[in-house]
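Question: I have long wanted to understand how a fold can be written as tokens. Here is the record:
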Amino acid sequence: MLYPRKKFRKIYIEISNVCNLKCSFCPQTDLQRQSDFMTVDFFHSLVKQVSPKVYLLCLHVMGEPLNHPQLNEMIDVCEKENQAVSIVSNGVQLSDVNIKALLNPTVHQVNFSLQSFGDNFPQASNKNYLKRVFHFVQLATELRPDMHINLRLWNAGHDQKTIAQNREILAEIASFLKLDLDELAKLSLKGHRITGNIFLNLAERFEWPEVDGPIVAERGFCPALKHQFAILVDGTVIPCCFDREGVIKLGSCKEMSLDEVLSGPRSQAMREGFMQNKLVEDLCKRCTYRLRFNS
């Protein structure tokens, strides 16, 4: 499937901020924002606005996309609007219905956060969980060989428990794909194509920015509003997917058009600030993930 050149690389639409798990590395929003599921009609109105602007539409900020009871209808909307989709999932709810939805031709990429299961069920075996994920990978390889599948371990650390758990997961991946475990274990912290369109993504655990956290920097760059932005489940537009509570509210798609929001004074001030290597918003000054863009 070919797509014309678009202004943004990624746009995030949070179809729900409800998750079936409570991971230690993923801050909860239920005490700050009202838990909700986006309606298909509102989602369709957003897709119509973003599809001329973006290559890849990601169906999350917080929450678990597979938790949405109308995920299949939302993916059908994206197919109708010729919009490529990316899904990030913990993979626990890989039901037959969800698998069918994810195999839709408009789904370009599926990412599984494999550290999620052990983080929530430390005493349970992960074999059945990984078996479900691998079953999807096998189906996608056969039916959708063009789909990119990322197997993520974004919890790299130096404690022995994490090292042992990740080694166990890598062993299962190696066995499933008939790869050399020792070679997988040597891979550096980045994305690696391990076979076909299957990738292994390794990264260190990162800290989510807090508006009342310590200032990290006053100056710097970020691709927010240049390559990406996000829309929360209530229609609030934010500059990036790390603003999980909508601290930097640029506007609401329930009150104005997306173009009006993106051309508004707060959006313009942020873009101009980044162009001048200046961090305008307090949350940006406290974001350690942004340091990865300094180079």
Summary: The chain has a mean pLDDT of 93. Residues 123 and 132 are 19 Å apart (CA to CA). The chain has ten helices and ten strands. The first helix runs from residue 40 to 50.
